[in-house]
Write a structure and sequence with these properties.
The structure holds two protein chains of two kinds. By secondary structure, chain A is of the alpha+beta class. Helix content of chain A is 21%, strand content 45%. Chain A contains two helices and ten strands; from the N terminus they run H-E-E-H-E-E-E-E-E-E-E-E. In chain A, the strands form three sheets. A four-stranded antiparallel β-sheet of chain A has the order 3-2-9-8. The radius of gyration of chain A is 23 Å and the shape is globular. In chain A, 29% of the residues are buried. By secondary structure, chain B is of the alpha+beta class. Chain B is built from six helices and three strands. In chain B, strand 2 and strand 3 (151-157) form a beta hairpin. Chain B is rod-shaped. Chain B starts with a helix and ends in a 12-residue tail after the last strand. In chain B, 7% of the residues are buried. The chains are: A alpha+beta, B alpha+beta. Strand 8 (144-151) of chain A pairs parallel with strand 3 (151-157) of chain B.
Chain lengths: 173, 169
């Protein structure tokens, strides 16, 4: 009887402690899933208006609706793209095209509301000419668009997006 | 005038004399059991005078100790469960109630202190441009937030127009 009571008490209080700790801490315990590094993806996009717009390339499908809504163009073509591992590596370079590239310095934002995002120091270059330095906070799923120069009858847009690392099960490639 | 009982008591105690004694003994002729009653009363007085006081005990403490031990031995002891009933015990129902109460507190704290997670694609967080420094005074940089699209745009104005002949690659 006493043993049953003790077992019940332990179970109840363990459950209570887990519930109080919340799902965050319950999921923060070590698990067999390891993560590679997050990546930063950038693309140079040419936005134009066309009477018969082409479908956006696969890389731009998740942005197409937002690009249309924000910039008002109907067709989006990817001039080039590049991605790099992101982390506390100091400065790295993203060269989505030979005309536009970015210098990136990243560090992980510690604030919980940053949702695992990064604080980035970005330098945008056009043909070796610096256009702008900026400091921005980016989190996965929250892209940053940079409205670049007008090009022909369209507009150049630089897209930056943090890509969450793909989980890899420990012991497997 | 003394009552019969008073004169009878005085007669037993031998306090009547003379005419008074003779008159009372004449009166006792109507009470045949009076002599036997006087005899009993005298015996009782003699016994009380002889044994009226208790013996002085030379070892009273030892006697008291024996009495206490005997009382304790003869008094039935309460069972442990009855003894514990007087205070608080960790019985199973009480543990269950306590556990339920703890869970209730935990649920209340969970609901009141831990913010609910945002679900769905639309999240209140979007990219933030903390600062932007154009390298050329002719370039201006402004930040445009579009919460409904969950997008942030760094809007650069004053950049050189690129003609179609510009080799974009």
């Amino acid at each position: 009887m006493l043993r049953c009571a003790l077992i019940l008490g332990v179970l109840v209080h363990t459950g209570t402690a887990l519930l109080l700790a919340g799902p965050d801490s319950a999921s923060s315990k070590p698990n067999p899933v390891l993560a590679t590094e997050d990546r930063i993806w950038s693309g140079v996009v040419m936005a134009t208006n066309s009477s018969s717009p082409k479908d956006p390339p696969p890389e731009l499908r998740e942005f197409a609706t937002r690009l249309k809504r924000v910039f008002g163009y109907s067709q989006f073509e990817l001039v080039g793209s590049a991605s790099n591992d992101i982390g506390d590596h100091g400065e790295s370079w993203l060269v989505p095209s030979q005309n536009f590239w970015l210098g990136v310095k990243a560090r992980r934002a510690n604030a919980k509301e940053a949702r695992g995002g990064y604080l980035l120091n970005l330098q945008l270059f056009q043909d070796k000419r610096p256009l702008v330095d900026t400091e921005a906070k980016l989190a996965p799923g929250c892209p940053l668009f940079i409205r670049g120069p007008a090009y022909a009858k369209g507009q150049l847009i630089i897209v930056l997006q943090i890509e969450r690392a793909t989980p890899v099960v420990a012991g497997k490639p | 005038m003394k009552t019969f009982e008073e004169r009878f008591t005085a007669w037993i105690d031998g306090q009547l004399a003379g005419d008074e004694l003779a008159a009372f003994e004449n009166e006792l002729a109507a009470h045949p059991g009076a002599a036997a009653e006087r005899e009993g009363a005298l015996k009782l007085g003699q016994v009380l005078r002889t044994h009226g006081t208790a013996h002085t005990m030379s070892n009273a403490d030892f006697f008291n100790l024996q009495v206490r031990q005997r009382i304790e031995a003869e008094t039935p002891r309460p069972r442990p469960s009855e003894r514990a009933g007087a205070g608080w015990s960790w019985s199973l129902p009480r543990l269950a109630w306590l556990g339920g109460f703890c869970l209730l507190i935990a649920v209340v704290l969970f609901k009141t202190t831990i913010p609910a997670r945002q679900t769905g694609e639309q999240t209140p967080y979007f990219a933030q441009v903390v600062e932007a420094w154009p390298s050329d005074p002719s370039i201006s940089a402004t930040t445009v937030y579009s919460p409904e699209s969950n997008v942030t745009v760094l809007w650069l104005e004053g950049l050189d127009y690129l003609p179609a002949s510009y080799q974009l690659q």
